[in-house]
Structures are given as structure tokens and as C-alpha cells.
Amino acid sequence: GAEGTLGVITAAALKLFSKVRSTATAFVAVPGVAAAVELLSHLREASGDRISSFELIPRIGIDLTTQHIPGVRDPLKQRYEWHVLCEVTSSRASESLSELLTDALAEEFESGRVLDAVVAQNDRERA
Prior knowledge:
This protein is 34% helix and 24% strand. With 127 residues, the protein is an alpha+beta fold. It has a four-stranded antiparallel β-sheet. It is globular, with a radius of gyration of 19 Å. The chain starts with 21 loop residues before the first strand and ends with a helix. The model has no long low-confidence stretch (mean pLDDT 92).
């Protein structure tokens, strides 16, 4: 017997998302975890909640990848203990998300919540 593993599906719900047509990605150095949380809040507000990914990365994560994966290097010139990899996306191709992300990061740099940042200029840098 099936021992209760077979069932009848009576309904299903799908959540559909528009195709991503515009993307901006940044690698950001932050002073610590609290600053990263504040940065997430600011970026959500500045981007109209278009943050599609936001990852906190400790220094050891950068060190492991640069030491063990050929061709990988730290995208920032100076060594920092905490990093954020964030991406903003939109279904509108005409939106300048790189400019939006750069402006939002500049505001956070002035407040001290961002120590350094680089915004990907193309798909190769984004990868």
C-alpha cells in the first residue's frame, strides 16, 4: 500500500512575478551587523521595496572564497570585517537602478553606515 502517501489535490495557488528587466548589484563594506540591518531598511525605503537579495557576509567568507576558488578576488581594495551583497531589481527595463542604488549608498556612506562600496557595471562584475 501507499501508507497514506497518496492524496488528492483539490486546489492550488500560484504566485507569479514579472520578468526582471533591470538589475543593480552592489558589494558593500559595513561596520557591523547593526549597520547592515539599518542599511537594509534604508535601501528598502529608497528603492520602493525592490530589494531582491541582501546577504550579510563576514570576512571569513571572503577569505575562504579568495583562497580556494581560482580567479576570485576581494572586490574592495581595503580589508573590512563585514560585507553586504545586495541586489535591486525591477520589471521595467527603463529604470536606472544603478543610479538609485549608488545614490542610496552615498547617503549611507555619509552617515557612517557604509564604509566602502562598489556597484557592478555589467553582468560579468555582477557574477
